[in-house]
Each structure stands twice: as structure tokens, then as C-alpha cells.
Write a structure and sequence with these properties.
275 residues, alpha/beta, Rossmann fold, Dihydrodipicolinate Reductase, domain 2, 2 domains, eight-stranded mixed β-sheet, five-stranded mixed β-sheet, 9 helices, 13 strands, 34% helix, 26% strand, elongated
Length: 275
């Protein structure tokens, strides 16, 4: 694929991970956007070799501010995508912020303080952070927010199902949907969430938002938001059958973000729907 100044160049941080490989595969088939850098952990078997699906790009174990600035000097729009871990994503955000390069972050598991540090870079670069890159999930969150506002007396419960190897619970997406419920009601999720019930817990406290995590098999990701009223219930569900769903969303987010001004963006902005 030829690289013209009008093309968007992607630096994939976490190129050897599950999501990293999926994104590299999607990039190998897309027009107008291409891989220009693949970053893996130091000591990774791929380090020093060709990136998966991109034999012309060498995997590297580090990324510097100078590397990113050189890419900008070539006239191409450069944007980063990070799917690593909390420590790695914070390091990535500092590097991209200093270089002035837009960044998409799909990493999850940030504490409130870590999230605050991450989002602080939006004052210098276009920054899009999403716990789930699926376009459908973000449309779901939009609908959940509307339902929560329209059904204030209904109990809200979120059930998420993931594969047996997932390390965090509840999932970042489940918490994101919980925030959508709370936002629709003008509340904070931290004040309303209930993530575990065991023993004699008493009657359900009105206004709480329950979140249940199920783990097993090879489930890519299922999320259902239940609104339960007296004599009726509403269930809004999203099911992902392939990680390519998230990879395509991440690539679309990167394409959209590449030419934006500094600021904090969300997938709703990519979709063009109201918050």
C-alpha cells in the first residue's frame, strides 16, 4: 500500500496482544489508513521482526517522542491506538501528549486517579478513551441513558458475560453502561452501584444499580441492561461474536480523531449522536 500525505498513519501500541493483532488485521484491509508503527513489550518475541499482517513494518519494544515527531514531519496525519494495560497506557499517553499526536485508548481498569491523569492530556492532544470500541455498544449506552431518564422508578440491573480468561470484573463496558444509567438519572455510579450480593442482604435498595459478572467459555462479550418495573421489564442487549467488532470500531475512531483539535472525545462523537 502506498502512503500519501492524505493517508492516516496508525501507531499500534500493544501490537502483539489479542486486540492489537485484530486491529492490525483490519488495518491491512482498509483504504486511506495504514500501519506506520507497531509497539510491543520489550523482550516480546515479535520485537525486531515484522508486524503481523504488515511485513513492511518492524515491531519495536519502545516508542519515543522523537519517533512520533518524525512521523508528523513526513506530512502524514498520525494517530495512536493503545490496547495494553493501565501502566502502559499511562506511559503511552504521556509520550503522545508530549509529541502532540492524537491517541485512542481502549485499555480498561483505571482507578479514578489514573483516569484523571489520563484525561489530563486532552488539554494538549485529541484524546478518545473508551472501555469498548464497538459502535453498537455506544449506541446501546445512548439508548440506556434515554431509558433510565424515562423510567426513573424502574430497578436497573446489568449482567455481563465474558470468556474465562478475562482478568477484571465487572467489565469496563458494564461499568460504562452503569454510568449511562446513572447519567440518565442525574446521579453518580459510585454512589449507586452494587457489584456483589451474598447472604441475607435484605430488600433491594431503591435507586441502586446492580452489576453482575459471569465468566466462562469463549464468550467475546455480552451485556444486558435490565429495567425492571412492576408487571413489566425492558431489556437492552448487545452481543459481540467477534473481536473484529472492536477492532473495526477502534480503526474508525482513529480515522475520525486524526484531524481533530485537542480535547476529550467519546465514541458517541464518532457516531454523531447526542450525549
Amino acid at each position: 500500500m502506498s502512503r500519501s500525505p492524505s493517508m492516516t498513519g496508525v501507531v499500534m501500541v500493544g501490537a502483539s496482544g489479542r486486540m492489537g493483532r485484530e486491529i492490525l488485521q483490519v488495518l491491512s484491509r482498509e483504504d486511506g489508513i495504514c500501519l506506520v508503527g507497531a509497539i510491543v513489550e520489550k523482550g516480546d518475541p515479535l520485537s525486531g521482526g515484522p508486524a503481523p499482517f504488515h511485513p513492511d513494518v518492524t515491531c519495536r519494544g519502545e516508542l519515543t517522542v522523537d519517533d512520533l515527531r518524525k512521523g508528523l514531519q513526513n506530512g502524514m496525519s498520525i494517530v495512536g491506538i493503545d490496547f495494553t494495560n493501565v501502566e502502559g497506557a499511562l506511559s503511552t499517553s504521556r509520550t503522545f501528549s508530549e509529541a502532540g499526536v492524537p491517541l485512542v485508548v481502549g485499555t480498561t481498569g483505571f482507578s479514578p486517579a489514573e483516569k484523571e491523569e489520563l484525561m489530563s492530556h486532552a488539554s494538549r492532544i485529541p484524546l478518545l478513551v473508551a472501555p469498548n470500541m464497538s459502535l453498537g455498544v455506544h449506541l446501546l449506552a445512548h439508548l440506556v441513558r434515554q431509558a433510565a431518564k424515562a423510567l426513573p422508578g424502574f430497578d436497573a440491573e446489568i449482567v455481563e458475560v465474558h470468556h474465562q480468561k478475562k482478568k477484571d470484573a465487572p467489565s469496563g463496558t458494564a461499568l460504562f453502561l452503569g454510568e449511562a444509567v446513572a447519567s440518565g438519572r442525574g446521579e453518580n455510579l459510585a454512589d449507586r452501584s452494587v457489584c456483589s450480593r451474598e447472604g441475607i442482604v435484605g430488600e433491594r435498595v431503591p435507586g441502586t444499580i446492580g452489576i453482575v459478572a459471569v465468566r466462562g467459555g469463549d464468550v467475546v462479550g455480552d451485556h444486558t441492561v435490565h429495567f425492571l418495573g412492576m408487571g413489566e421489564r425492558l431489556e437492552l442487549t448487545h452481543r459481540a461474536s467477534s473481536r473484529e467488532t472492536f477492532a473495526r470500531g477502534a480503526v474508525e475512531a482513529a480515522r475520525w480523531l486524526a484531524t481533530k483539535k485537542p480535547g476529550a472525545y467519546r465514541m458517541e462523537d464518532v457516531l454523531g449522536i447526542g450525549r
